[in-house]
Design brief:
14 strands, serine acetyltransferase, domain 1, 2 domains, 7 helices, globular, alpha/beta, UDP N-Acetylglucosamine Acyltransferase, domain 1
Length: 294
């Protein structure tokens, strides 16, 4: 049996080895201002509150009435503001390496960004309403809108994505990616918050769908399970590292349908009204109204 002294020696040796390894900035994070990291638990709570706001009566209290609706939404928004402004502040501090910057600067900025985000919620709600309609119209198995909201992973994934996308537009660091990865774990649908997706978007079944950062999707587009809208390759800088942020994912125009397990790669355009059959590998532009089946 290992003695307490031996345990201490082992631990001391491991700590010493860790200290000697050059892992700073890779596997460890040192806050410049002793600010905690963003909290996954709090972000989950925020998403549940936002679902109550965006889908009142479906999530949270089911007995919401026309008389209590305004109070219900207002109370939940107040909680969202309180929790989200704190998490956004932590996100700003996560990327801050300036020890001379005052923390109240990040706090003020976080509150301002949170207010701007809350102002965007009616627009997000409108987009989600079109996604629900697209799911209902696109699947004959859907009996009503409520079934799509409760049961379809597409609607859940798009709710998370549309919230994260708005936060990314407001230049909130880290948190948008955390939110979409939370959705990825829940639904099996991987949508980068940087993607641009229009109205009436539907992902049927959904499992295994991947939509890359610079993808642009028009209106009334439908994808099936296993579809990848990805990058073919990416250029490297003089140090051999990938160049970030350049357009490298497909543009999918209005009224396109892409069937299951098809892979669309590179900055190519799938023209309006085109249909991509199942199990296709597409790396070149597809003209409008074209059917790709082999």
């Amino acid at each position: 049996m290992t003695s307490p002294l031996d345990k201490k020696n082992i631990i001391d040796r491991i700590v010493r080895e860790f200290s000697e390894q050059d892992v700073s900035g890779v596997l460890q994070h040192l806050s410049a201002h002793d600010m905690p990291m963003p909290s996954i638990e709090s972000l989950n709570e925020i998403m549940e509150l936002l679902k109550k706001v965006l889908f009142p009566g479906f999530f949270g209290h089911s007995e919401v009435s026309s008389e209590t609706m305004d109070y219900y939404i207002g109370a939940n928004l107040d909680n969202v503001y309180r929790l989200l402004s704190e998490q956004i502040k932590r996100g700003f501090c996560f990327e801050c390496h300036d020890e001379n910057r005052l923390c109240n600067e990040c706090e003020y900025k976080a509150k301002d960004v949170t207010k701007r985000f809350l102002s965007s919620l009616p627009g997000i709600k409108h987009l989600l309403s079109t996604d629900v309609i697209a799911a209902f119209n696109g699947d004959p198995a859907a009996r009503n809108y409520g079934e799509a909201i409760f049961c379809y992973p597409s609607i859940s994934a798009l709710a998370y994505y549309r919230i994260a996308h708005e936060l990314l537009k407001l230049e909130v660091p880290l948190i948008p990616r955390i939110i979409t990865e939370m959705s990825h774990s829940l639904t099996g649908i991987d949508i980068h918050p940087g993607a641009t997706i229009g109205e009436y978007f539907f992902i049927d079944h959904g499992t295994g769908v991947v939509i890359g950062e610079t993808t642009i999707i028009g209106k009334n587009v439908r994808l099936y399970q296993g579809v990848t809208l990805g990058a073919k390759s990416f250029p490297l800088d003089e140090n051999g590292k990938p160049i970030k942020g350049i357009p490298r994912h497909p543009i999918v125009e209005d009224d396109v349908i892409i069937y299951s397990n098809s892979t669309i790669l590179g900055r190519i355009t799938i023209g309006r009204g085109a249909v991509i059959g199942g199990n296709q590998w597409v790396t070149k532009d597809v003209p409008a109204e074209k059917k790709v089946t082999e």
